[in-house]
Amino acid sequence: MLSRPFNLMGILIHGDPKVVKEGYKIFPSGHTSFYACPNIRSFASLAFLSWYLCGKVKAFDRRGHAAKLCIVLLSLLFAALVGISRIDDYWHHWTNVFAGSIIGSVVASLCYLLFFPFPHDINGWAPHASIKMRENIELHSTSIGIDIV
């Protein structure tokens, strides 16, 4: 049995209105990328968390602790599981999830690097503002002859 046609954005459409409107929400998958789309949001937030943890636990300090990398990669694994669940539940095509994950990862990387140096940097654990403030304090203390411990 055919459903009654309805108007969507000036176009006469046949079919279930809920199914047709859901079809307009597929690219990119919001669950893996950014705010408007939940998939983008999960990759953006969890990739940012991964960058942040990488700097805070000093994952690249050449001390060889595999546990540090496991902690860092765990958040990316959770983000990937969100994307896989979207594909498995037939909410999105894999290309939509992949595009959302790329967008979310790029946004997370840009946001992290705006406030923090690269995690492999000697001061990778601290924000740019904190590093600048410490440099100013050290410069001022050496100019007046005070030793900072």
UniProtKB/TrEMBL annotation:
GO molecular function annotation: phosphatidate phosphatase activity
Subcellular location: Membrane
Record's bilayer topology term: Multi-pass membrane protein
GO CC, alphabetical: membrane
Pfam name, any one: PAP2
Main location: membrane
Keywords: Membrane, Transmembrane, Transmembrane helix
Any single GO BP term: phospholipid dephosphorylation
Transmembrane segments: 33-54, 66-85, 97-115
Occurrences of domain Phosphatidic acid phosphatase type 2/haloperoxidase (ranges): 13-116
Classification via InterPro entries: PAP-like, PAP2/HPO, PAP2/HPO_sf
PANTHER family tied to this protein: LIPID PHOSPHATE PHOSPHATASE, LIPID PHOSPHATE PHOSPHATASE-LIKE PROTEIN
Family named by the database record: Belongs to the PA-phosphatase related phosphoesterase family.
The name this protein goes by in its record: Phosphatidic acid phosphatase type 2/haloperoxidase domain-containing protein
Species assigned in the record: Solanum verrucosum
